[in-house]
Amino acid sequence: MIKRSSTLIAALAAFVLMLSACGVQDEGGPVSIARANWSSGYMQAAIYAQLIEELGHEVTDPAAATLSPYSFYPALAAGQYDLWANGWFPLHEIYLEGENVTGQEVDLPIEEIGWSVAHGATDGLMIDKATADSLGITSMDGVAANAGVFDGDGDGKADLIGCNVGWGCESAINDQIANESWGSRVEQISGTYDDLATGVVDKVNAGEPALFYAWTPNWTNTVLVEGQNAVWLQTNVNHIRAVANTNFLDDNPDIRRLLEVVAIPLGDIAAQNAKMAAAEEYSEADVAADAEAWIAANRAQVDDWLAQARSAG
Description:
Layout: H1 6-21, E1 35-36, H2 42-54, E2 66-67, H3 69-77, E3 83-89, E4 97-99, E5 105-107, E6 110-128, H4 129-135, H5 140-145, E7 158-161, H6 168-179, E8 186-189, H7 193-205, E9 211-216, E10 230-245, H8 246-251, H9 253-261, H10 266-278, H11 284-297, H12 299-312
Helix pairs in contact: 1-3, 2-11, 9-12
């Protein structure tokens, strides 16, 4: 289990309490859906938005609220948003708890719901296969012992190409660096993930060592392939789940039921991610069209979900 950051949790809780005191809880109006700021989750967000519209609700455009987990979860707890489809668990568990001003733990009014992708999402750390084979590296301890191979800035530490600031994986990697025996020889390089990953692909194609964070489903899996040009050093299995404001769910039992039953095959997400990555340009209209096409291709199942939702409502 990754150690949780008490500073992060306290800051999130304080932010939630401040927003709640300001009375920002949405009353009526359209269903407010956000989406995560990683492109591999865009289609899921669009699918959920379109399904909720089919239930008869007005829905905001998820693309208008593209957020990091660090920004989304406290805003969700405060009622600024109603839900998103991009929860990763257990990776995002750090955002579901907080502390009040006396230091006591409190449960925030948000909950994971449904199993969009159960047991199918994997994240962890990889290196290029050539370096793994030549140096016999099979773990992060092996990376630490050969830190200079991955050291691009000359500080004596291996450069771990990591995550955007504000993502759960960025916090998890930093916690590992602070607490694991290999951490003193490794530093995380944060930035815009797609740009960083493109640089990793260039390194691997050029035969240069690369240490990096990766996850599935994502476009990187089509070019950085386990056993071909990359190998996992550590992996974590996650569930992709919708996350919603509890008060919103209580007020909308039809949406609660819909979120409980929707499931999107991992292969369908991966195929759309690969299509999106291969295109020179990919617009929000293209993402919406992919969601529409997926719903049409799965209409019988979708109609059953909607029927269950309407019965609950």
